[in-house]
Amino acid sequence: MNATASPPACADRPPTRPAYEPRLGETVRDTGRNKIGKVMGSVGPYVQLRPIDGGVEWDASPDDLEPVPVTEALRASVAAANARSRGESP
Predict the structure, then answer these.
(1) Residue 49 sits in which domain range?
(2) Cβ distance 35 to 42 under 8 Å?
(3) Whole-number Å distance between alpha carbons of 73 and 47
(4) Whole-angstrom Cα distance, residue 53 to residue 42?
(5) Is 79 part of a structural domain of the chain?
(6) pLDDT at 45 over 80
(7) HEC states along 34-78?
């Protein structure tokens, strides 16, 4: 028996991904709602997110959150600022 052999992969189990823990103020994507928001805090098991252009916060499951690349977060912020300048949002 080879001491360096790894155990056989189990086809029944999906690969696990490490838990993502967003930080306060970070821009994230809620894959459950397909929305981008800023992390405002957490209550119980949920993370509270606010839309980039402001508005009402919503609760998201931490399992549905993923980090947003800096370029995408900047793009969303600029789009929100442009909409405000055109009077399209408060």
Answers:
(1) 27-85
(2) no
(3) 18
(4) 20
(5) yes
(6) yes
(7) CEEEEEEEEECCEEEEEECCCCCCEEECHHHEEECCHHHHHHHHH
pLDDT higher for 73 or 16? Answer: 73
Asked if residues 46 and 76 have their Cβ atoms less than 8 Å apart, the reply is no
38 falls within a domain: yes
Half-sphere exposure in the Cβ direction for 71 (13 Å, CA): 0
Give, in degrees to the nearest 5, the angle at Cα 60 between 58 and 66: 120
The count of domains in the chain is 1
Q: For residue 14, is it within any domain?
A: no
Are the C-beta atoms of residues 62 and 71 closer than 8 Å to each other? no
* Residue 90 maps to a domain: no
Q: Output the pTM of the full model.
A: 0.71
